Amino acid sequence: MDALVPSVHKMHCPPSYHPERPERIEIAIKGMKEEGLEPNIVDPGMRDAEILTIVHERAYIEYIRGRGKGYIDADTYSTEGTFEAALAAASCAVEAADRVARGEFLSISLARPPGHHAGRSGAAMGCRTLGFCIFNNAAIAAIELVRRGVMPVAILDFDLHHGNGTQEILWYNPEVLHIDIHDAFEYPGTGWPNDLGGGAARGTKVNIPVYPETGDKGYIFMLEDILNFLMEKFRPKAFVISAGFDAYAGEGMGYISLSSRAYWRMGNLLKELGENWGVKGFAVILEGGYSIGLRKGLPSFLKGISGMGGEGVGGELEEGTRQYKIFLQLKEFLSSFNDK
Ligand SMILES: [Zn+2]
């Protein structure tokens, strides 16, 4: 399988230890090789910076272009090469979307810096930081698919953290269904079931906060149920996956911790849904994941979605728990949008 990796990603390199570092991509590729995925590394090159204006304000793009070495905020750094690396990451996302539009069932962008916390003009939804992100690669990929007539598009964001940038950018966009499953107690603190989208897009933003005790089975139960429900309602023609692997057990980034079996099942569930509902393809865009999640979770997910063998986990959620209440609340909200 091809893995889109821009060689210039190394120009975005932290001044001192930081989890979002160039070695992440080496860990991901090593993990893929260990699982027999044999990635063919492709650098698709740079697109024109105009692609960034699909989702970002020009003033923000110029702000990033003009920045040198330093910290943009408490947890996001920039270097002299950040603009080029971030534009290359966005270019990879557009290439992945184009490949899906041309008929590839699975296209994978392993680019960095990540993007799902970046809003139109930087930090999104009142958040104080960009959370290591620069340009919103997944939102750009989704809009690229819509521009090419592949719509509606669904984004599934299963990074540990809520994609507040993606939600902000697409809040009023009814052509993009944004489903976000994330740690209820982690940064940035946004993404609750009553966040449903604005105006004509109401009902197209779906948030599933997950409590620490929920585990593999509960996580998969909610994803299976809600994705099945949404497939029937929206019939998305393609998916963009905001694929973060920082919810993997041992990553140490948050409270929920998933196993390889959960990631394999997530991939395999998407493959099943894609085949059952006539989805053209999946553009997988790397978000977070900093160590073991990249090495183990990423290849498990890719094996599941590409139909390679693996061990999954069955969905199960105990009634009466606080997680079950969140699930019921979300189902009730979503059911009230009958014609969307
Ligand atoms: Zn994350």
TrEMBL record:
User: What's the name of the protein?
Assistant: Histone deacetylase superfamily
Naturally occurring in which organism (per UniProt) = Korarchaeum cryptofilum (strain OPF8)
| Biological processes, Gene Ontology terms | epigenetic regulation of gene expression
Q: Please report the stretch or stretches of sequence annotated as the Histone deacetylase domain.
A: 18-292
Q: What InterPro entries has UniProt attached to this entry?
A: HDACs, His_deacetylse_dom, His_deacetylse_dom_sf, Ureohydrolase_dom_sf
- State one Pfam family annotation: Hist_deacetyl
Which top-rank group of organisms is this from?
Answer: Archaea
Q: Which Gene3D superfamilies match?
A: Histone deacetylase domain
One MF term from GO for this chain? histone deacetylase activity
